[in-house]
Amino acid sequence: MKKALPILVLAIIVLSLLPVPQDNQDGAYNLISQIAWCRTRTACLHEIGHALDQQAGWVSASPEFYKALQMYLYVEIYQQGITELPAGILEITYRGDGGSNPIKLEIYAYLFQQAQGNSANMPESLRKFYDWDAAERYLSELNQEQFVYWMN
Asked: Taking the model in full, what pTM does it have?
């Protein structure tokens, strides 16, 4: 029994550092270990978005990002109507669990995913909130045979 306890503790520590997807997701990012697991390139782009957000000190939770996001959404709705907004933004916005930070965190990663990691595809008003040099470094590491990435 005494030998089993250290093994159990070690197993719990290791498991807490692994990225664990939820609800059949194609990717996951572990905030502690900064390790991402992704099954598809699209999922990798989303997880890179989370890594960029964390490394920038959670810019998605900043008042500046929130204001820029509001203005972007307002302009999109005004110019094209609400039915033309990307479905992903609408889904993330309305499936939230009541807290605003998780929603903004997901929208931050979603926008990076939708831009395909390319600053030219990002709405101009939101480009400044992403570290494009770090993004380029992470994107250069993506390949078809690898599914786990250390985002550091």
From this structure: 0.76
